[in-house]
Amino acid sequence: MSRICQDDVGQCDFIDVLEETVLRRRPVAVQLRAGELFIDQMMDVVTEAGTDFAIFRTHPRVPVREIAAVSRSEVGAVS
Prior knowledge:
Rof-like_sf; Rof/RNase_P-like; 23% helix; alpha+beta
C-alpha cells in the first residue's frame, strides 16, 4: 500500500482503505492532521453517534476525520 491521503480519495473511500488494513492485520503508519505520526495495527472502524472512529491495538481510538493519511509500515513491531 502506498501512502493514501484522505483528502485525495474522500472519506468514504478512505474508510474502505482503513477497513482493508483491518483485514490485513499488519502495522500501518498513521499521519494525523495535527502532525502526529504513529505506527500501530488497525483493529476496527466503528461508527458511534454519527462519528467514524479508527480503533487501534495500542494507540487510543481516533476520529477518522482527524487522520490525514495511512501507509504500510515497514516496521515489524507495533509501537
